[in-house]
Amino acid sequence: MTHRHDSLNEDTLPLPAEEWVAHDGVPLLKTLARALLVLEDTTGLDAFTLPYPAESQRALDRTVLACLLHGEEPPASLAELIERCRTLPLAEWPLDLPPDAVGPQDMLLDPDSGRPGDLCHEWAERCPDTAARFRDRMIVHTALRLCREYGEEEAYTEFRRLLVRRPLLTVAELSVLGGDLVLEPVYELVTTIYQEVPDSYLRDGHYSTCGRCLTLLTPVRDGSWWCERDRCRRIGPAPVGRRLERAVVGRPVQLERPLRQFVTGPGRAEADLEQGLLTLGLDVRMWPGYDAYDLLVTFPDGHRWAIDVKDWAHPVFLGRSARPVPADPPYDDGFWVVPQHRIAARPGYLAAFARARPARARDLPLLTDRALVSRAAARLRDLKTPPTRPRTAAGPNRTSPDGVPHA
Questions:
Q1: Per-residue pLDDT at 1 exceeds 50
Q2: What are the counts of helices (DSSP H) followed by strands (DSSP E) for the chain?
Q3: Is residue 401 packed enough to be buried (19+ CB in 10 Å), middle (13-18) or exposed (0-12)?
């Protein structure tokens, strides 16, 4: 049985940060998420022995205490705790959580593969009580600083495209980038954020990428593949894209996990939205003004939209981060956009986002990517439709036989 407060009404102000973290379930979920990521990176979630890593032992101890306080059977081991994370929705845990903290089907581990999903990473990295500067933000800010120092906005744009479109490189491909004059301001940074791929990704001497999101696929014992992107897993089995033979290309390098999670993943959503708008014939500029926002869209009449794409699993984390779209480069309308698959996966996503927004962002629209493309298409149709001639007042003899006034 979960011990939670009732959901807030639509017009209720979001809980202040200090009240959010006051719920004992919030730091516990954060500790659990971090422990699962540490285990995956160090020993694997199915290959660990006593003594447990400190973060994992802390997560187990705190979960046991929470269960005992609520009169429920605690996990007897770390293995049992991990199994609960894989099979039991968070809404059924004995946790004291604020409104909208978890959805009915939220789980920290993917139920099929047992690997951490997007939500686990967001609880570990995006939970509002953390004061640390996140690795992905540090890298992006460093790239911005370097490109500004060189006065090369194009270098930053290409840096972002690299992270979105090429999360995996062979050593030879990484070396070739060293001769790319556009990327020169950030090349040394690039060499630090791509890391050697571990052998756990190998199957039959090959590394394989997902044909949809381009990230490396993880071999599963039943012979299938596991893709780390929630979106891909919901669509269906991951299609194999690129295959790299270890004996030929050596050990490739991939972007470190925080960048794949919070830059590459959302970047795919940005690229998809870009393509949808380009198909309509619109002018689209990516990451304008050194990434002031994600897309600047210009219509034939000069009207401009500024768009920030937010591919986040948790609507409350997204809502609490909401802020107006930066004013420069200038635009006429600003939007935040979330991929449609996030809405489909989490009932009440938009309402939870709205409840969590701070006062400064009360008027910020959040649309799905599909809704935004539809709105853009409708605006283009309106531009092409000739304006209706104004009607004159109808006198007693200015009606048609059916009684409708003449134009």
A1: no
A2: 18, 14
A3: exposed
Rg (CA), the chain: 25
List strand residue ranges (DSSP E) for 294-340, in order.
295-298, 304-309, 333-338
Strand bridging mode 304-309 / 333-338: parallel
The kind and range of the H/E element at 262 are none
Residue pair 268/164 in contact by the 8 Å Cβ criterion: yes
Tens of pLDDT, residue by residue over 118-151, are 899 889 876 654 433 467 788 999 999 999 999 9
Sequence letter at residue 156: Y
Q: How many CB atoms lie within 10 A of CB 332?
A: 11
pTM for the whole structure: 0.76
**Strand runs (DSSP E) across 129-282, as ranges?**
168-169, 194-196, 206-210, 218-219, 225-226, 240-245, 253-255
CA angle, residues 202, 204, 205, in degrees to nearest 5 = 60
CA distance 148 to 90: 44
Q: Are strands 225-226 and 218-219 parallel, antiparallel or unpaired?
A: antiparallel
Q: What single-letter amino acid sits at 261? A: Q
Higher pLDDT, 391 or 312: 312
